Every structure is written in structure tokens, then in C-alpha cells.
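for the writeup, i need someone to sanity check this before i put it in the appendix. the sequnce is what the collaborator sent (i think, or maybe the updated version? ugh). structure was predicted straight from it, no edits. if anything looks off just tell me and ill rerun, i have time this weekend
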Amino acid sequence: MEHMKLISAAIVLMSMASDALAQSHLLTLQMSCYGARELVATQGGIVLSTGVTTYERNVAAVTQCVRGENLDPAWVPTADTPQCPIGYRCVQRTRPSGG
């Protein structure tokens, strides 16, 4: 029975931690498109929330990506624009198929 209490407590703590993590990022829906773009440009790379439980890292240049990644244009919803061109996301390079 004690084991079940520990598991329940761990689940509650993980849930609280994930809620806190989601809340710690700036929400693009509370920014103007211009403001969000400027934030990415000045920070170089930043994690932004795009909804209550969604977030992603946006970057201004490929120098913010790790080796083996390319830039992919990123659009996010903002307070004044449904699809704001905020900058880029870093994505894994795909290898050519065939051979």
C-alpha cells in the first residue's frame, strides 16, 4: 500500500512540474507578430509557448542549431496574426533517398 502512495505522489509531482514548465515560456498568443519576431531576432534562439500545452524552440539563424540540423521556416499564432512568420525551427537534415 505504501508503494502505491509513493507512485501517486510521484505522478502528482510530475504533473505539477510539467504544468510549471508549460507556464514558464512566453505565450505567443499574448504578443504581436512584430514583437514575437523581434524577440526571436534579439535572443537568437528561444522557447515560446504557442498554446496552453504546446511550445517549440524558434531561432533566428542556423548558428543556433546543432550540427546536422537545417532551418525550417516557422509560423506561430500571435495576438494579431494567425500565422506569424517568427523565424525558424532547427530540424534534422534528411539524407537523400536512393543510393
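The first strand starts at residue 26 and ends at 27. The CA atoms of residues 39 and 82 lie 18 Å apart.
thx in advance!!
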